[in-house]
Amino acid sequence: MDPNFWHQRWQDNKIAFHEAEGNALLSSHFHLLSLQKGDRVFIPLCGKSNDIGWLAGQGCRVVGIELSQAAVEAFFAENGLEAEVSRVGGLRRYRSGPIELFAGDFFKLSKELLGPVDAIYDRAALVAMPERMRTSYAHHLAKLSGNAPQFLITFDYDQSQTEGPPFSVPAETIDRLYEGIYRREPVASVEIAGPLAERCSGTENAWLLRP
Ligand SMILES: C[S@@+](CC[C@H](N)C(=O)[O-])C[C@H]1O[C@@H](n2cnc3c(N)ncnc32)[C@H](O)[C@@H]1O
After folding, report:
1. What is the pTM of this model?
2. At which positions is S-adenosyl-L-methionine bound (predicted)?
C-alpha cells in the first residue's frame, strides 16, 4: 500500500488489526519453533503489537520494523518503557532492554542493520501487502534474515467478500512466494474472528515455515 495509507490509519486511530490481548495462535503454538532464551525474533511490520512484549516475556530478544514512528513511540509509551533513540541508515532505532524497534520502511532495512535473526514472527504483515508487492516482500524478508524459520499467520477468505488489507493469502500463494526457500507446515486454523469477521468469513491460519 501507499505509505500514506498506513500513516493516515495510525493518525486516525483506525487500527482494527491491533489485538488488545495479543495473538492467541502465537501464544498457543510459538513453542514449536523451539527457541532458546536470548534468541532473536524479527517482527516485520510490527505496529505496536502486544506480541512484542509477549515474546520478550518469553525470554526472546525482539527486533521489529514499523513504518509509523507514531506507532513505535506508542508501543514504548503504552508499555511504560523508556527507549534510547538513534538514527541509523535513514531509519530511527528505539531500544529498551530486549526490545529494539526500527521506525521506517521495511524495504530500506538491510541485513547489516537488522543483525542476526533466529526466527521471524509474521502476523498481519504478509497479508498487509498488496499482490504486486508480495514477492519483493517475501524475498527481502528471507534475505534479511538468512532464511530464518518463520511463524506465519495468514487469512484465507474469498477476496470478493471484501477488499484488503488484510488480503487473503491462501496456502498455494505462500508456497509460490517462498518456493525453494521454505517448506510450509500447518500449525492451526481457526475461524476468522474480531472486526474482520464483520467483513468476511474464512480462516486465520498459522504456519511454520522451515528453510
Ligand atoms: C495490518 S498492520 C499489522 C501490525 C502488527 N503486525 C500487528 O499484528 O498488530 C500492518 C502494519 O505494517 C506497517 N507497514 C506497512 N508498510 C510498511 C513498510 N513498508 N515498512 C514498515 N512497516 C510497514 C503499517 O504501518 C501497519 O502498522
Report:
1. 0.98
2. 10, 45, 66, 123
Among the candidates 89, 117, 145, a domain finishes at 117
Count of structural domains, the chain: 2
pLDDT-derived band at 203, boundaries 50, 70, 90: very high
Residue nearest to atom 24 of ligand 1 (CA): 6
DSSP 43-58: EET-TT-HHHHHHHHT
Q: Does the Cβ of 129 fall within 6 Å of ligand 1?
A: no
Q: At what angle do helices 69-78 and 3-11 cross, to 10 degrees?
A: 40
pLDDT band with cut points at 50, 70 and 90 for residue 196? very high
- Report how far ligand 1's centroid is from the alpha carbon of 83 (Å): 20
Q: Give CA separation, 23 vs 26, 181, 194, in Å.
A: 5, 26, 12
**Domain that residue 93 falls in:** 37-117
Q: How far is the CA of 46 from the centre of ligand 1 (A)?
A: 6
pLDDT band at 1 (very low <50, low <70, confident <90, very high): confident
d(CA 174, CA 55): 24
- Residue 49 near ligand 1, beta carbon < 6 Å: yes
Is the Cβ–Cβ distance between 92 and 80 less than 8 Å?
Answer: no
